[in-house]
Structure formats: structure tokens, C-alpha cells
Amino acid sequence: MVRLVISVFLLFVSTIGFSQTAGNEDLKKTNAYIRFEPEEYNLGVIEVNEVNENTGNIEINVTNDGAKPLILNSVTGCCGTDVKDWTKQPIMPGKSGTIKVYFRVEPRPSRISRTVTVKSNAANGAQLKVAIFGEVVLKRQTNEIDLP
Fold first, then answer.
1. Distance separating alpha carbons of residues 106 and 119, to the nearest angstrom
2. Over the Cα atoms of the chain, what is R_g?
3. How far is CA 146 from CA 31, 77, 106, 142, in A?
4. DSSP label at residue 126
5. Dihedral over alpha carbons 27, 33, 37, 43 (to 10 degrees)
């Protein structure tokens, strides 16, 4: 009985292993395939006195790594994040487009956490998000030790 259970279990596991969906390379060969550069946007640590009107202006590059034209159907930002412009014409295979985003960064200590949502015809995700994060601090911390 134990051998039968083990045999059925191994048969089940091997069937699942061989029935996986197409890999990324297969998707790229027959569809539009979106890639963001950067995949997530890290603003890093910004001192309060370094914050200016351009701190929240960022640009995300969108590349089509697939074989068919990539169409960005809509691009939206969360919580006060304004998508100024994005590539509206189809992005041909091997080509890139851009998403221009603006959000206000307050000159006071706080964490920055925003997302941009992209809806497209990409095979690797009809709706993908790009995270934008960072932190505004009074003064950067240093790990230096003052010696007498």
C-alpha cells in the first residue's frame, strides 16, 4: 500500500513538473513582452535641504523585448502621482518608450512610497506596477566615529 501511494505521488509530481507554462523566452518569441528600466525606482535618501521642484520628476524607460508591438493602454499613478506623458504609439520589438511621472516631495522627513500602474498587451503581465520609493531625512546618518 505504501508503495502504491508513493508511486501515485511521484507520478503526480512529475506530471506537474512537465506541465509548466511557457517560459519567458517562449513568450518573447511570439508576443509583446514589457521590461521596465529601472524595475523599481529608488530615490535613495534625500536630505530636506536637497528637496527641490525636480525631486519628484522621474522617467521610466519601457522596452519591448518581445516579437510583436507593445501597446501601453493606460498608465496611472497612485496617491498624488501625476503621469505627465507616456509613449502612446505602439513600441516595436527591440525599441523603447518612456513614462514621465511627477509627484510632489515635501521638504520634511518622510518616506516616499508611490506606484505607477501600466496596463498593456504584454504577455508577461497585462497590468504591471513600478514601485517608486525613497526617504527624506533631516540629515544623512554616517557611520564615522569621531576620534579624540
1. 29
2. 23
3. 58, 44, 32, 11
4. S
5. -90
pTM over 0.85: no
Decide: residue 128, CB within 10 A, 0-12 exposed, 13-18 middle, 19+ buried. Answer: middle
Q: What is the maximum span of the chain, computed from C-alpha positions, in angstroms?
A: 77
Q: Name the β-bridge partners of 100.
A: 59, 85
**Over its length of 148 residues, how does the chain's per-residue pLDDT go in tens digits?**
656 555 555 554 444 444 444 577 888 888 999 999 999 999 999 999 999 989 999 999 999 999 999 999 999 999 889 999 999 999 999 999 999 999 999 999 999 999 999 999 999 989 999 999 999 999 877 665 555 5
Distance CA 138, CA 148 (A): 26
* b/e per residue 1-36 (b: at least 16 CB within 10 A): eeeeeeeeeeeeeeeeeeeeeeeeeebbeebbbbbb
Instruction: Report CA 97 to chain centroid distance, whole Å.
Output: 15
